[in-house]
Amino acid sequence: MNKLRHASLAGAAITVMMLTAACGGGESSAGDDYGKAPAGSSSKIGDGYASGSGGYGSGGASGSAAAEKNAPAKQLAVREAPGIGPVVADGKGLTLYRFDKDTAKPPASRCDGDCAKAWPPVPADDATATAGLDAELGEVKRADGTMQLTLAGWPVYRYAKDAAPGDTKGQGVGGTWSAFAPDGKKAGVAGGGDEGKEGEKEKQPDEEKPAADGVSVDDNPKLGKILVDGQGRTLYRFNKDSAWPMKFACNDACLDTWKPAKPVEKSAVRGVPEKLITTVTRPDGTKQLAVDCWPVYWFTGDKKPGDITGQGKQGLWFAVDDQGKKVTTPAS
């Protein structure tokens, strides 16, 4: 039995090294940085809502705030969100969201564990529609056996960092979270942003394909052999991130400047040991390329292939060499 168990563990370790699971045990433990919204997404719905912290930290809520985020929706309302348009809110004015990695046909929720702490599922009980809401209410059974509210088939969530009625801080987080429009589609997107036709099978998360851009080695005259993406952009790692346990410290406004590199196919890896190239899951559910289990990014300040203007920024950002190690050589 012990031999069988040891063999199973060895097999699991190999699997982790083969791009089929995230580093750090598969689930990222982003801690205080879990689920942060992009910069500028702190708009309010309508007027007259008082601001306040609401008691929500960087991630899940606590105390009475947590209870409020997990409370039934009561009577849903349609409200106007500046810069977004009409959105659906619960009976207390908290914005309701949908997740691109869920499905509506059939309804299925894929936000569990830490994800559900940042995005509390809305219970199915005690929810009623209101004038202007054009989507059918329903329910779906979650993995833990609880029933979650659905709107037009899509599971419904609140965002833990929406501190006050009217906040829309969850809009656009990770490119996968959107406030509900009154018809159940994505608010703030022309045509609702829903792809596919009636009756067609919706795309499942496990069907997503890594980008084909690839990873290769560039012989930089100042830094030596460094990793670049398929467009020749230098790849960097961030000292405040962590490979073990997995932690993502670049969130919010940071992502305006440092863009998470997309995962790649194994066949598109050149000049670097394939075992070093993996995929990790960010707190918002999106996938990111990792080198030696460190999430890597490209810098918006690099304007052409070969640029290394991000090297040594703030003493925290460094290019990565062909063995997966950070390069500390100054750029100038």
From TrEMBL:
It holds the Pfam family Lipoprotein_15. GO terms for biological process: alkane catabolic process. It comes from the Bacteria. Residues 194-211 have a biased composition (Basic and acidic residues). Residues 165-222 are annotated as: Disordered. Residues 1-21 form the signal peptide. InterPro entries: Lipoprotein_repeat (IPR005297), SCO0930-like (IPR047910). Keywords: Lipoprotein, Signal. This is Putative lipoprotein with Yx(FWY)xxD motif. The lineage of its organism: Bacteria, Bacillati, Actinomycetota, Actinomycetes, Kitasatosporales.
